[in-house]
Amino acid sequence: MKALGYTRPLEIGEFKTALTMLDLPVPEPAEQELLVQVKASSINIDDIHFAEGTFFGGIYPSRASADKPTVAGVDVAGTIVKVGAGVTTFKPGDDVLGFTMPGSGRGAWAEYCCLASKLALHKPAGYSFAEAAACAIGGKTAASAVVCAAPSAGEHAAVLGASGGIGSIVVQILARQGVRVTGICSASNRDLVLGLGAVEVVDYAKGPFDVQMKDARVDMVIDCVGGREIEAQSMEILKKTGCFVTLCGPEKYIGERRLSKTGIAAMLGYVLWRYLGSKISGPRYIMAGIGSSLEPLQNLVLSGTIKPPIDRRLPFTEADVRDGLAYIASHRAKGKIIIEM
Ligand SMILES: NC(=O)c1ccc[n+]([C@@H]2O[C@H](COP(=O)([O-])OP(=O)(O)OC[C@H]3O[C@@H](n4cnc5c(N)ncnc54)[C@H](OP(=O)(O)O)[C@@H]3O)[C@@H](O)[C@H]2O)c1
Fold it and tell me: Which protein residues are within 6 Å of ligand 1, measured from CB?
């Protein structure tokens, strides 16, 4: 089968050029796995970080080698062709969406991939394969950030990076729950974010958003960008009883740099210190991960609550996916970039 991947650990900035179309055997599903004919996948910024060993500053070094190439990508939407002996909830012919474990090396940018049955959902008929791939890991991460914020209808939220792959889904989830959303993004994404359900948009390019929102007191900030400056500005607009949920922590565009072990320890120490300190004196500080349960995502997908905007659809070729990687690395993507197999 054709698969896009790499055959050695990569340096920062190398993924775009080292990504290669490989010819690999179709994998065999393990007992609790599904073999899926992939119809669509997506490009996540973290696909680059896993390939270049910089995810969260480098907590998962890449292990690719010529003997064991790493197939890139995580999001999967496709049709099951075979199931492992222990699988009872899926059968060949079912259309599914889900994701492979980030960093596992058994990725989704391939004609076929194996998906753990616990990381898969039946694809609702109302979703195209492209839409289903767009809301797999991004949807799960967004859902888990919202669960951390525990919003109630009528509350006010600010979403940073509201036009990105995850932020665009966060805005939709909050808006459908009756939360008043202020999207923070550049002016070019204003209409997109209002269309997702935000009631107003603040253009961060016009000046610090806390100054522009000086009269607002929000119940939650969901940060999909990261960095201490954003955190400090968020504290200015948050109620004391509110919460700051970050996907990225104190480093802006986390994953663009490789940190030393001391640097990673300092960053994790900061996150722990902020989390514990905020329990004594609010607003609460929470670092969200992708979460362990698929249930919140399942409810959102089944109810049709989330349909991420699709920025680009790329054919499954080395050159097109390389272009997609360059685009996502610019931090200007509007929603998701889809690869169609
Ligand atoms: N914690 C976890 O488990 C976890 C899981 C997945 C992802 N992540 C992290 O979450 C982050 C977001 O991922 P993503 O897929 O949503 O990224 P993305 O799609 O690449 O985000 C691009 C968007 O970010 C916006 N943006 C860039 N700089 C901004 C700024 N200073 N202020 C406001 N918006 C800004 C851009 O809007 P404009 O063009 O309008 O600026 C663009 O629409 C990544 O850093 C990723 O590593 C964390």
Answer: 44-46, 138, 141, 160-161, 163-167, 184-186, 189, 204, 224-226, 247-248, 253-255, 288-290, 328, 331-334
